[in-house]
Specification:
alpha+beta, T-fold, nine-stranded mixed β-sheet, four-stranded antiparallel β-sheet, 8 helices, 25% strand, globular, disordered N terminus, binds adenosine monophosphate, binds magnesium ion
């Protein structure tokens, strides 16, 4: 089939809030820290590398951020010429030629859509646009528009051809939104470059998607604060000790608007068309690849407590911290020694 590329739409700018932060304190053993912060992928990206001379650190960070820019240009729905925008623009019309890495991320998205029973769905874009959460036009949609938009969702409509390197949304009006997975992918790609450059210790935070390379310079684990979903950024409920892992949170406090005293947040349930409302207010996933942690944090948030915990307990080398609106905290079995609840307002709960 003929392949075309077209310019597509510009969307509102997404604003994300960092939800995880590192507790470095005043540890003066962490010598020669070089830090670079950039606003990319609709969020603040913070990268710190340790124990490396300034010149090589800067060169490595420049390469890592250039890679994020490349990823943004390929996956952003806010850039009309991105591959994702072009796939959306040509939904129901024609398959679009895409890069191999687009195929890879789309395949990963479909994998998690299936694994989560459709709780995670990369074809949720039109619904995300309808709600407009994070834009100045955010509003509760009327029933008719909601119904029409719900018809555009369904990951089975996304056809990937690995040999021809094309992607196609079969349904007109259907739109991809990879906002729940791309920051994770970008974190992994930054890590790949930094490791290639010989960096053994680094801390990356892509708007709440934290990824640590190695342990701290003194060999001790990183201490990551897990955001208190009911308080301003920087207030945490407990501390996670970890090395060489991705730690990604999804929460109702990250992006939302209020209408008639009711809060509407940005993680939508593809079954109802409304913000997911199952008692969870935050889900943090800890695993080695950030792309998996990112997709899983959104998946589990929508799947809810029981199904979400079952899913994580059955995945190898994957752990989770779930917080409910009643301030109950559930952790998976592998975190008993690694996570410490420090905020007395919260308590552990077992299933
Ligand atoms: P995250 O913060 O990683 O949980 O991702 C939330 C973002 O992913 C939202 O801002 C939307 O762009 C998109 N999104 C919302 N709901 C879903 C869903 N159920 N499945 C996949 N992506 C979603
Ligand atoms: Mg996610």
């Amino acid at each position: 089939m003929k392949r075309i590329e077209l310019n597509c739409f510009l969307k509102g700018i997404q604003v994300l809030i960092i939800v995880l932060f590192v507790l470095t304190g005043c540890d003066n053993r962490q010598k020669s820290i070089v830090q670079q912060d950039e606003y990319m992928l609709g969020t603040l990206i913070q990268a710190k590398v340790f124990n490396i001379d300034k010149k090589s650190a800067k060169k490595s960070l420049t390469r890592a951020f250039q890679r994020v820019q490349e990823i943004e240009e390929r996956f952003s729905v806010n850039i009309p010429t991105s591959e994702v925008s072009c796939i959306n623009e040509n939904a129901g019309i024609i398959p679009i030629s895409v890069n191999e890495e687009t195929i890879k991320v789309l395949e990963k998205s479909i994998y998690y859509a299936k694994l989560s029973g459709g709780a995670f769905d990369p074809t949720i874009g039109a619904l995300v646009n309808l709600w407009g959460i994070g834009t100045k036009d955010a509003k509760v949609p009327d029933n008719q528009s909601l119904k029409e938009t719900m018809d555009t969702i369904g990951f089975n409509n996304l056809i990937i051809n690995k040999d021809k390197l094309t992607a196609y949304l079969t349904k007109s009006g259907s739109k991809l939104d990879l906002g729940a997975i791309v920051k994770g992918y970008a974190a992994d790609e930054m890590k790949k470059i930094l490791v290639e450059e010989g960096i053994k210790t680094a801390f990356l935070n892509l708007g709440g998607n934290v990824l640590v390379i190695g342990s701290k310079v003194d060999g001790s684990p990183w201490r990551i604060g897990v955001q208190n979903p009911f308080q301003r950024r920087g207030n945490y409920i407990g501390i996670l000790e970890t090395k060489d892992q991705a730690i990604v949170s999804s929460g109702n406090y990250e992006r939302y608007f209020e209408q008639n005293n009711k809060k509407y947040h940005h993680i939508l349930d593809p079954n109802t068309g409304y913000p997911s409302n199952n008692g969870l207010v935050s889900v943090t996933i800890i695993t080695s690849q950030s792309i998996d942690a990112d997709a899983l944090s959104t998946s589990v948030y929508v799947m809810g407590l029981e199904k979400g915990l079952d899913l994580i307990e059955n995945l190898p080398d994957t752990e989770a911290i779930l917080i409910t609106e009643m301030k109950k905290v559930y952790i998976t079995s592998g975190l008993k020694e690694k996570f410490q609840l420090t905020n007395g307002e919260f308590s552990y709960e077992k299933r």
